[in-house]
Amino acid sequence: GACGGNASFNQSVPASFGPIRFSSVRRYEGDFTPPTSFSSDPQTLAQYNLLDRTFADASGNGRTASSVGGTWVSGSGPACEQGARCGDGVKAAWEQCDDGNQVDDDRCANDCTGNRFDNSFIASGGYHLCILRNGQVWCSGNNRDGQLGDGTRTQRTVPVRVANLSDVVEVTTQSNSSCARRRDGTVWCWGNNDIGQLGTGNTTDQLTPQRLGSLSDIKAIGSMGNSGCAIKPDGSVWCWGYGIYGQLGNGSTSNQDSPRRVGSLRGMTKVTGGNYHACAKGAGPELFCWGRNRYGEVGDNTMTTRTTPVQVTVVDDILDFSVGGYHTCVLRHDGTVRCFGDNSYGGFGIGNTSGGPSARTMIGVTDVVELSAAHHGTCVRQGNSQMYCAGWYYHVGTGNESNQYSPQRINLGGNVRRIFSGAGVEGAAAEREDGTVWTWGRNHYGQLGIGSTDNNLSPGRVSGF
Prior knowledge:
This protein has one helix at about 395; strands spanning about 5-10, 25-30, 45-50, 55, 60-65, 70-80, 120-125, 130-135, 135-140, 155-160, 170-175, 175-180, 185-190, 205-210, 220-225, 225-230, 235-240, 255-260, 270-275, 275-280, 285-290, 305-310, 320-325, 325-330, 335-340, 355-360, 370-375, 375-380, 385-390, 405-410, 415-420, 425-430, 435-440, 455-460. It is mainly beta.
């Protein structure tokens, strides 16, 4: 039956049937054992979603079936919610999202289940934000150099879709440019290119994505302040753009407008950078870093600039890492976080502002499963889906203008699925388990995507996400 009125049916359940709601269901015959809440006849059923095979009884208790199939013998009552319809732009209780259409190739699946949130990703540049969802990239903020990729130089306070780009699996941002990796292994970049940071072999700005013709079958991409990096199938790392501090890792301090190999690294699976340094890691516990080392951010227990990769020696047993503006943090296998480099704003989360080349352990958090370093701060997510941040108040999101030297819990009104920040970013972002995206921090150009240019010291939801 259609939403918005009483409906009844007596039919086999087609596999493509979307979420349905009936106030009373008298009997179900199928190829699974019904949950105990369906043991009597009749039973009241608040919601049944065939697509993700979940039930909710009249009390709101979740139920799950091992398989879907069979026949509803009889059912009656108000189908869906009164007046509710997938694609009407109003999120009903049975919907996970509703963006006002039933187009499948955008931010919300065409059946309003939002069942493809897992491939979402957020990247923040100096003054712009990009969100990857369902293979598409949406950006907001400063667009002076075309870094939003919509073919204009118009500033946007809500995300707009990047032109001529689909099937994206990864997105990164530099200060005033952006790059994306498609599923076919090609890399596409757009925005400011005055020092070759797009890697296209020239210094011409691009308002829409341009393919880096010299790169193919790429497995991962990363970025620094005004530089980009990519990992080839053999795990070798290639970088381009601004190189004055040796952050391109090729032994020189020159800018490069096309990719150059970083040292002799092989077997790497992740690469990312801060303002002037970068790090890469493979499957093992070793981490390699290079570039400016003014605060000890390279992790070799010195403050000597490194133009080629060196192994981090100040911490061991590394599971993952994240690079901030002038510091580096690592997640160890025991769930603790250790940071080294600049701690002027308390971004290490150690209770004070002591920094330098020695690694220091973040206090007050355990069982960390994800970390994200920012310009002057660091955020972590625990195994219980709670998020904590320390450092500059723009990163911390506690609603006041006080730097926080120890981790502070971020209240997003729901469990956190992923966290995001960026080396040059004056804020942070997170995705909740319901797929909504929340941002906070400086917002002079509308980069938070909340529809205004007002700074936001507490989390606000990104428009359309």
